[in-house]
Design a protein that fits this description.
The complex is a heterodimer of chains A (80) and B (570). Chain A has 80 residues and is mainly α. Chain A has helices at residues 4-18, 32-36, 40-54, 69-77. Helices cover 55% and strands 0% of the residues of chain A. In chain A, helix 1 (4-18) crosses helix 4. Chain B has three domains: 4-261, Rossmann fold; 269-449, ANL, N-terminal domain (Rossmann fold, 3-Layer(aba) Sandwich); 463-569, ANL, C-terminal domain (GMP Synthetase, Chain A, domain 3, 2-Layer Sandwich). Chain B has a nine-stranded mixed beta sheet with strand order 2-1-11-10-12-13-14-15-16, with helices on both faces. The longest helix of chain B has 17 residues, at 41-57. Classes of the chains: A mainly alpha (80), B alpha/beta (570).
Chain lengths: 80, 570
């Protein structure tokens, strides 16, 4: 079982790979819309990638209003 | 379609539709690859009546206001029908707003009933904005887990009354819905729409977008939005057609639904259309050189053959694979809610997929003008719908002026805002705040906005005045939020952005600390409401006697600056 810190780190790593930005440029409290300059659809793409990675299903309504990596990771963690 | 000229209310028309089309499928709900619901019109009625009885027993009656905050799903439509059947006024609210904003609108609308989904209710119930000052008496939540804390709400699924509910008739001039077009900070704008607005809006549709039992409409735009409420609920229902709901909006599942349910029509916001455009372009570019050459030749042939009008049957043969990906039955993609770039429209039309770009405002029900595709024009928003009068007020030398609209679909006014209503509807004409002109063929072209407002690609209206609350208490002398295109009028409906204008204290500079503070506050706003840049202004803002900022005068002064160099990126 992963710890929340591990989950957060994996979310950051995957986001950096998916959007091709340096891994060390993202921090847990970053707002991903702003930091990555992405729109809501691109955020949904990231979500699908995270689901595949963690082997979970995360309904859209669970992430409604979430915009930082830390909260996103905690929503994932609660389904692991 | 039912003959809507004979009906007095939405409820009466829907009631007859449920009987007339009883064996037809009215709703399909799909969650990822799983179909979770399939209801006929008869099933719909059987679900609705016990709920109507229970709500009536708990006090829902004539003119009661009932709010719905839900994602697109069958229970949204069943609940809305129950409200109309019982003579109530529907208040559809945006599920994407923050709980604070939702509470504000619940209070503003004086809703006595709220129907929502459990995850939304969980956030609402925990919000510090929840207080006893609302008029709410009954809260129903859908899909609550077995042991969930309901915080005073009832389970939608168990809320059933025994016996037949009473149908409460309404007349055409009665208020049917209160739809919030925008504004949650200082001034919520609740458009009061009458039953007549909706009945009349539907009448010209069959000539443009015919529907029939078995035809499918994919409902993706939020149903609280005027467009989906009409095209994803009322219009298909009075035609006995099928509405398809998706519980997820992930692009991969949305794509899969087109062939699965042979979608006939869909409405998208420009952002989603652009995403489809990008995805298709990437796929075409990945074709081997000779395949691409062949493909380009087919597109060119299709373009030549559809110059005067769409020929969907022919296009489906010529560009079979593209059309099969869309299910092979797609007639038209309707794009609304915001302006679409012409080259994106052209791209789809050349593939034989017509994109109907239309123009509408919540205040005018749904549509004002629509492209009739005879021939296709990417550079206009089409001609006025039958029954709509459109004129250009005070045109300049180029014929460009404010677009004004009159017709039976114009709202009766803004809730609790008589002054704002009087400014917006003058002698029966709705002042849209959009700048446009008619070309020689009677097509309307849009050129920007007169109001300090932006419309995002997701179809959201944003009034900068509403964003200012997020910056309240900022350690500067004064500040103000503007739409950049309002300061520097640009003949464009795209690429709009918000700016924070700062007047610093004497000797104060824009330090890293101040920048961080601004960024932190900005990030608390929903992403589409965020400010993009800062403009420094070194004089006192012009103000009225009551100390309100004179925005138009301040904008004129700011316009003296060079746009590119004045905007400091945030």
């Amino acid at each position: 079982m992963r710890t929340i810190d591990q989950t957060t780190q994996e979310v950051l790593t995957l986001a950096s790979k998916h959007f091709q930005v340096p891994a060390n440029s993202l921090a847990p409290d970053d707002d991903f819309f702003k930091k990555l300059g992405i729109d809501s659809l691109q955020a949904l793409e990231l979500l699908s990638r995270l689901e595949n990675h963690f082997g979970i299903e995360l309904p859209d309504y669970e992430v409604q209003g979430v915009s930082d990596f830390r909260t996103l990771a905690s929503r994932i963690q609660s389904r692991l | 379609m039912l003959d809507l000229s004979k009906y007095q209310s939405i409820g009466a028309a829907l009631k007859d539709a449920l009987d007339q089309f009883a064996p037809q499928v009215c709703l399909i709900e799909s969650d990822r690859e799983r179909e979770t619901e399939r209801l006929t019109y008869r099933d719909f009625k059987e679900r609705a009546h016990p709920l109507a009885k229970a709500l009536q027993d708990s006090g829902l009656s004539t003119s009661s206001r009932a709010a719905i905050i839900m994602t697109n799903q069958s229970k949204w439509l069943i609940s809305a029908y129950v409200i109309f059947f019982s003579g109530g006024v529907l208040v559809p609210l945006d599920y994407k707003l923050t709980p604070e904003e939702q509470w504000q609108l619940l209070k503003h609308s004086s809703a006595s009933v709220l129907i929502t989904e459990y995850p939304i209710w969980r956030q609402l119930a925990a919000s510090p904005s929840r207080s006893s000052t609302t008029n709410l008496k009954t809260v129903l939540v859908t899909e609550a887990p077995p042991n969930a804390a309901l915080s005073g709400a009832h389970r939608w699924e168990d809320f059933a009354g025994a016996g037949e509910p009473a149908f409460i008739p309404r007349s055409r001039s009665d208020i049917a819905t209160i739809v919030y077009s925008s504004g949650t900070g200082g001034r919520p704008k609740g458009c009061m729409m009458t039953h007549e607005n909706y009945l009349e809006q539907c009448i010209p549709f069959p000539a443009l977008y015919p529907l029939w039992p078995g035809a499918t409409y994919l409902s993706i735009l939020p149903t609280n939005h005027a467009i989906d409420f009409m095209l994803g609920f009322f219009y298909p229902f009075v035609n006995g057609a099928t509405v398809v709901h998706l519980r997820t909006l992930r692009p991969e599942y949305v794509r899969a639904v087109f062939p699965k349910y042979k979608i006939t029509y869909v409405t998208l916001v420009p952002l989603v259309l652009k995403n489809l455009h990008k995805g298709l372009q990437t796929r075409f570019e990945a074709l081997s050189p000779w395949k691409r050459k062949l493909f380009n030749a087919l597109v060119a042939a299709n373009r030549a053959l559809t110059r005067s009008r769409p020929r969907v049957g022919l296009s489906r043969v010529l560009l079979r694979q593209v059309h099969e990906a869309f299910g092979g039955q797609l007639r038209v993609i309707i794009v609304g809610g915001a302006f679409t770039e012409p080259q994106v429209l052209r791209f789809f039309y050349d593939l034989g997929i017509s994109v109907a770009n239309a123009y509408g405002l919540t205040e005018a029900c749904t549509g004002i003008t629509v492209n009739d595709l005879k021939p296709f024009r990417a550079d206009t928003v089409g001609k006025p719908l039958p029954g709509m009068e459109v004129r250009i007020l005070n045109p300049d030398a180029d014929g460009i002026g404010e677009v004004c609209v009159r017709g039976k679909t114009v709202m009766s006014g803004y809730l609790n805002e008589p002054e704002l209503t009087a400014e917006t509807i003058v002698d029966g004409w709705l002042m849209t705040g959009d700048l446009g002109r008619f070309d020689a063929t009677g097509h309307l072209q849009l050129f920007g906005r007169k109001k300090n407002m932006i419309v995002t690609e997701e179809g959201k209206n944003i009034y900068p005045e509403d964003i200012e609350a997020a910056f309240e208490g900022l350690p500067v002398k004064e500040f103000c939020v503007f739409a950049a295109n309002y300061i520097w009028p640009k003949h464009s409906m795209v690429g709009e952005q918000l700016l924070l204008v700062l007047h610093l204290e004497q000797g104060q500079t824009l330090t890293d600390e101040l920048n961080r503070e601004i960024s932190a506050r900005n990030s608390r706003l929903l992403n589409y409401k965020r400010v993009h840049g800062i403009v420094l202004f070194n004089e006192d803002f012009p103000r009225t006697a009551s100390l309100k900022i004179k925005r138009n005068i301040l904008a004129e002064r700011l316009a003296q600056f060079d746009r590119a160099s004045a905007i400091l990126p945030l």
